[in-house]
Automatic annotation (TrEMBL):
This is 2OG-Fe(II) oxygenase. One of its GO terms (molecular function) is dioxygenase activity. InterPro entries: Oxoglu/Fe-dep_dioxygenase_dom, P4HA-like, Pro_4_hyd_alph, Pro_4_hyd_alph_FE2OG_OXY. The keyword Iron applies.
Amino acid sequence: MECLLKTTSSVRFGSIHHPCECPANEACPFSIMSLFKRKAASSLETLALAKVGETVRKRLSADPGVYRIPLDDLEIFGVADFFSAEECAKLMAIVDSVARPSPTYSGTDASGRTSYTGDVDPFDPFVLMLQRRIDDLMGIDPSFGETIQGQRYAPGQEFRGHYDHFLPSQPFWDAEQKRGGQRSWTAMAYLNAVEEGGQTEFARVNLSIPPQPGALLIWNNMKPDGTPNANAMHAGMPVVRGTKYVLTKWYRSRPWH
Ligand SMILES: O=C(O)CCC(=O)C(=O)O
Ligand SMILES: [Fe+2]
């Protein structure tokens, strides 16, 4: 059977070679079948992201211990003293034990994140207990959550402006689709106070949050309709004096593995 796309591929895909022999060949990323499947999967994912957006928004809004930062164009909440001083101290020691120079997903721009980072042991009973507390606060099925990441910033270190969610143009998009899909909510905890610098800045909505020990910050990387929210762009500003410790937990549109 003649491949319909092959006849137009020089126009649509430049000189990209594809092995497609037939429009229904699912193995070929350019076949009509593949394009159709990707479109359908993406619509389903948008629906799932809108749903998890709504679930978490309703749950957090009904919780008297949660404060919604009043912004029209970004859903962002804060909880003071989510972790106790003892828990923060224990968590900082855990971060020290796992933190290595950060690999980032920023590809060639490796300078995006200069802090030290590492996954905490998800089977550690103490970590499990705290993770359950975050899952329960959010009301998200624990299987959707990634392993908690710990980060430590020394003076001069930062995490430049970025999105936590993935973009289809990124080289790891396909791999992440298979590992649980798009990121929905981020929950980030500050473990200590920083003498100077280290704020989390959401530049597009003019929001700058200084680290407060034990506080949890939660934001939706998607808009209520389940599509990515450009206003969720944020940065960990350079630490000027002191050391900054944070924990980050990301949730996906499907179970993560
Ligand atoms: O350290 C911060 O304030 C931001 C961290 C962050 O954006 C992340 O871990 O994705
Ligand atoms: Fe981030």
